[in-house]
Amino acid sequence: MRRSSLGFHTVDMVLRLTHDETERLIKHFYRHSKQPGTIRMLMLTTLPGGEKEWREYSPIHMGTRLVLPLNLKISYPDKDHGVKWMIRSDMQSNAYKEYTIEATINPKILGGNHDYVNAATEDDMEVAIINFNRIARSISPVLRTFDYYRIKRIDYCINFSLNELAPECSSEQVMKLIRRGDVPPHFGEWTEFDSTAHRMKSKPDSFYLICKSANINCYGKQVELRERNQKNPGSISQAMLKEAQDIIRFEVQCKYPKVYALSRRAEKDGNDSINKYHDLLKYQACLKVVNYHYKMAVGKGDWFTLSKAEKIILRQDFNKQKRNRLLGALQEVSQRRSLARAKALHQGEDLVAFKRTLKDLSDIGINPVTIPRDWGITRIPNLMHAYNDVSLARVAFPEMQLV
Length: 403
Description:
By secondary structure, the protein is α+β, with helices and mostly antiparallel strands. The protein has helices at residues 19-33, 107-110, 122-139, 162-165, 171-179, 221-231, 238-243, 256-268, 277-280, 283-297, 306-315, 320-336, 339-343, 348-363, 383-396; strands at residues 5-17, 40-46, 52-56, 61-62, 65-66, 71-75, 83-91, 97-105, 150-161, 188-189, 192-194, 199-201, 206-210, 214-220, 247-254, 303-304, 379-380. The protein contains 15 helices and 17 strands. A hairpin with a 3-residue loop joins β13 (206-210) and β14. 34% of the residues are buried.
């Protein structure tokens, strides 16, 4: 059974509402919440000290009209149905508010497949859309159908099964190498305050980069599922935890500016529908987004030990100046234990030259981040290239999928 997979895992959609539609919808949600085992409604409340807190929603009326909350979360507390909602308000002027209903769907779960490991594909959307429309219809006609929503955010992802692509190494080792990679332009590494170290730190078991249009998040899937299971005991089976043991998840969380740009391209190609999921979620679209961001953050070359990478450079027909330039860059990244930290030492023309050196290393298949000598491993393949090779093999030899 092949377990590397590429696709997406969640999709955020948005539908604009009038004031009257919002009032009707909240009433319908509230009525539905009174049925056993259904939804829960939480309202964002401002406390006396100015802090905000999500509290159980209770309707407030002014005369015959419902007072509309600024933000309202609706979800299923007892079981993950693969869909949740958020009603938001946006003050356009002193006299006018605009309301939206946002739906976040997990196509695997919404389609009835409680699989938190494998990536969803466009094929999963068929059943997910049917179920979305069925659930929406059971709550309120204001929710309409899937086709009326605009896609606001897509979390594209790829699962790298190390047993399949790089069996010589562990997920912890691969994450250590990825965390030593680059921080692309306009991105910054996400950090939080560590009360023990008394400073801002990133998570040690993930690589999370953020910018205005997209986030890059890479982590061991088993670690993430364990954390989810701790928050909600029993939500993840032991079988699923075991299945995720060797999985590295690399995801690109495309926010609205990025999705808007992708949608405009789809329009130019002739897709004039409101919901452009056919173009945005097809395999080639997922591959293009993931591959582009993987190359930016992780790189295009294979990982080698420092000595092995140096031997590869010395075998090339380079002049002495170029050879020394490449060897020096490898030493610098190794000493700094991070490509991003090594790059930060350069500015101006010096930075331009350093970037050219990184490209030269990439052109001969070397990732400037090197494998620690004590691991006993001389080479780890570029996971994106390894995945593409396996995918091509599946097409050429479909019987491999039965292995």
